[in-house]
Amino acid sequence: MTLLAEGLALIFDMDGVMVDSNPVHREAWIEFNRRYGLETTPEMLERMYGKRNDEILRDYFGDGLTPAELNARSLAKEALYREMAGRRIEQMLVPGLRAFLERYRAAPMAVGSNAEPENVSFVLDRAGLSGYFRVVVDGRQVKHPKPSPDVYLLAGRLLNVPPANCIVFEDSPAGVAAARAAQMRVIGIRTTYVNLQATDVNADNFESGQLQTWLGEQRRIV
Fold first, then answer.
1. Which of 73, 65, 80, 72 is CA-nearest to residue 27?
2. Domain stop point among 87, 102, 128
3. Cystine design at 188: which of 20, 27, 138, 199 (Cβ 3.0–4.6 Å)?
4. Residue 189's closest CA among 166, 177, 172, 174?
5. Would 3 be classed as within a structural domain?
6. Average pLDDT over residues 6-27
């Protein structure tokens, strides 16, 4: 039984929303960059949140990398991330996520992430979450990643739900900007940023009573 008004859909970012994976991504970037003699500063790590790997790699290594080099380095870094995450996925799940998805499982739900497709599959399969989502959109399925709205617009279109009736869960400014540009409602999850701006409501995690109250108040816009 859904507790969401008919006609509404839920779209979830992955990193920082479903899994608190940013600490592992930071570890992976630090180790990966050292392979190329690059020491990773806190400022560099701050800039990677919510971005697709090709953008991060150009930021870290400059614009001289060929598309083939970008792809190879992206694959290598994410293989390192998955190796580090390994059996930690269950511990990485944001508190309350599994119960929340079960509670709202009758509602149309999608994943909309800038992440590499291998990472999205890894998290959903390893955590046993795939069955909750009718649609999965990753960063390779669109030309322009977040903060462009493309990821979320595609997810809404595949769900057959208009943007105004889609509710996005995000943890980064780039992701919030993408959802806003798509003209969708936005819930901020405070795993990465304590004071996430331009959201409709913020919650520490999926155990928040305020979050469920807010969702229960939402109605379809005709």
1. 80
2. 87
3. 199
4. 172
5. no
6. 95
| Final residue of a structural domain among 71, 87, 103 | 87
Percentage of residues in the chain with pLDDT exceeding 70?
A: 99
Give the position of tokens 């969708």: 184
Domain tally for the chain? 2
Residue 41 per-residue DSSP state: P
> Confidence class of residue 27 from pLDDT cuts 50, 70 and 90?
very high
C-alpha distances (whole Å) from 100 to each of 97, 178, 211 are 5, 23, 10
The residues, any chain, with a CB within 8 Å of residue 179's CB and separated by 6 or more, are 149, 152, 168, 170, 185, 186
152-210 pLDDT, tens per residue?
999 999 999 999 999 999 999 999 999 999 999 999 999 989 889 999 999 999 999 99
Known catalytic residue at 138: no
Pairing assessment for the beta strands 166-170 and 201-203 based on DSSP bridges: unpaired
Q: For residue 202, which of 179, 173, 178, 170 has the smallest C-alpha distance?
A: 170
Q: How many CB atoms lie within 10 A of CB 101?
A: 19
Among 13, 20, 138, 171, which one carries the catalytic annotation? 13
32-78 pLDDT tens trace:
999 999 999 999 999 998 889 999 999 999 999 999 999 999 999 99
- Round to whole Å and give the CA distance between 149 and 112: 10
Cis peptide before 147 (omega within 30 of 0): yes
Q: Is residue 106 part of a domain?
A: yes
- Residue 115 sits in the same domain as residue 137: yes
